[in-house]
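Pair request: fold both.
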Amino acid sequence: MATVDEARGYPIAEPTPDLYQILERLEALVERGSRVPFSSKIMVDEAEISALIEELRHAFPRELRQAKRVLQERQKIITEAQLEAQRILATAQERAQYLMSEQGIMNETRARCEEMLRQAKEQRQRAIDEANRYAREVIEKAEAAVLDAASHLQRVKRELMR
């Protein structure tokens, strides 16, 4: 199973065991090589090293193809994520615009309702005041009529008592 790059979150292309084996064989060939006296150079079998180099040439393209596939997959994931992010952003902007327009309508409606309520309260108070004024007038007229009737009854009573 391929290891995953923790920082980037995508698979790391690992060389196949063939490539490692070829490198180990190359290393072993160098270790087995004869040292050239008075230098840091080593002599190795030309045919063996040429064969290993040829194997490396064949192994690398396979590794490079795998790395290219991983990079293409990574790019595909990034592109899909960017498209999804753009879609989410567009949806959020549309929703915000809708809410803002809805909020504006609601604020306007609320203001109109509050004004209508204020006017209704004023009309109610005027109606109550008018009803109270009318009731006072009626009571005062009734009181005057009762007083007048009482006064008339008192006169009739006095006349009767005489």
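--- second member of the pair ---
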Amino acid sequence: MLDPNLLQGPIPGMSLVTEPGNRPWENPAMLTTVGETIDFYTEKLLDPDIEDMVLVSLDSMLSVEVIADFITTSGTMNGIHSLDVAFLVNPYVRELIMYLGDAADFKYVTSYKDIEREKRLPYKYLKPLIQEVFEQQKPRVIDTEITYETKDKGLMARPQRIEE
């Protein structure tokens, strides 16, 4: 069954039918320097209500990278700062989130890529195991002698396999 909420999203080109300047991202940003933006996020993230929401997100194993990207991207969408400033402030926001996790003695995931790297075994450990498996297997004899014969002698004649 089709979810009715699926059809509630924006229509392509919808942003082109409103008056220019009505959307937050179409106006100049409130904060223009990296220093102002760092002060803004420090004040926001150290607020007890926001801190609790960040800790809940960390406790549900949401990565620090994803949380920081969400926070800085939403700041851009709401017209707080530009996208350039968001990229420059993102490492600071990550460090601040990790500080909150360390202060609350939470175990957090820095990045999902790190988890994938930890699960993967290095080839130097796998190579001896692979060699051992191949040494234990008996070699199979494959009959490579297959003869083909053509009934017709034309240029486009198909070869027929001869069963022996």
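Observation on the second member. The chain is about 50% helix and 0% strand.
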